[in-house]
Automatic annotation (TrEMBL):
<keyword id="KW-0540">Nuclease</keyword>
<keyword id="KW-0269">Exonuclease</keyword>
<keyword id="KW-0175">Coiled coil</keyword>
<feature type="coiled-coil region">
    <location>
        <begin position="166"/>
        <end position="200"/>
    </location>
</feature>
<dbReference type="GO" id="GO:0004527">
    <property type="term" value="F:exonuclease activity"/>
</dbReference>
<dbReference type="InterPro" id="IPR036785">
    <property type="entry name" value="YkyA-like_sf"/>
</dbReference>
<dbReference type="InterPro" id="IPR019454">
    <property type="entry name" value="Lipoprot_YkyA-like"/>
</dbReference>
<keyword id="KW-0378">Hydrolase</keyword>
<protein>
    <submittedName>
        <fullName>DNA repair exonuclease SbcCD ATPase subunit</fullName>
    </submittedName>
</protein>
<dbReference type="Pfam" id="PF10368">
    <property type="entry name" value="YkyA"/>
</dbReference>
<feature type="coiled-coil region">
    <location>
        <begin position="70"/>
        <end position="104"/>
    </location>
</feature>
Length: 223
């Protein structure tokens, strides 16, 4: 047989096999891609945690200084602002990864509509709802975190001003504390939702009868 014809026939068989693949199996591949796209999100966890710790240490150094050590306070404030800028950059990388993950995840809607087993379809729809809620929580988390960073930056800019009143500093610190409280609460919700999603995904694969050796999990926030 002519090699050209052999390759064409092989390609046709391969494409036919892909087209006839079950929607359940297609959902599996989509969800594995979702995890892959969240790798940059996962990779940001440790650096972000380390930067948060570094900023906290700088803050403690500043508040331990006397007001007559203004130059030292100014220097440390510049260092803190640099750390916060890097934190913002890391958060934006994390956010971009989640957006890409969400775009890939949106593909499961078409596959769910093709599932013939009604109880399994209902289960898949619940899985979709669980993950969408996870994405929504992250959107809220990102918003709270960026706001907290802005308040924090403002504080270090204030530290660089001489003759600043204690009331002004305390008011700014309160804004920061309130913002980070929201961040902490949202992280908790995100992690709980991630756990629910991972459990629901595993159950869906089991109930769909998919014999899967590898089943990747979506990442919770480590900080």
């Amino acid at each position: 047989m002519n090699n050209r014809w052999f390759h064409l026939i092989f390609l046709f068989i391969l494409l036919t096999g892909c087209m006839s693949q079950s929607p359940e199996k297609n959902i599996y591949f989509i969800l594995e891609n979702v995890v892959e796209l969240e790798k940059p999100f996962k990779e940001q966890q440790k650096p972000i945690s380390e930067l948060e710790k570094k900023e906290s240490e700088i803050y403690n150094q500043i508040v331990s200084l006397n007001t007559n050590e203004f130059e030292k306070i100014k220097q440390l404030s510049e260092e803190a602002l640099s750390v916060l800028n890097e934190l913002e950059d890391r958060m934006n990388k994390e956010y971009k990864s989640i957006v890409q993950s969400r775009n890939e995840f949106s593909k499961i809607g078409d596959e769910i509509s093709k599932i013939n087993d009604e109880p399994l379809k209902t289960q898949a729809l619940q899985l979709q709802k669980t993950m969408e809620k996870r994405y929504d929580i992250y959107e809220s988390l990102y918003s709270h975190y960026i706001k907290a960073l802005e308040y924090n930056k403002k504080l270090y800019e204030m530290f660089q001003q001489e003759n600043l009143s204690l009331n002004e500093i305390e008011a700014q610190i309160q804004l920061i504390n309130d913002a980070y409280k929201q961040v902490k609460e949202t992280i908790k919700s995100f992690n709980e939702q991630t756990k629910q999603y991972n459990e629901a995904k595993l159950k869906f694969f089991e109930d769909a009868g998919l014999n899967i050796e590898k089943q990747s999990k979506s990442t919770a926030l480590l900080r």
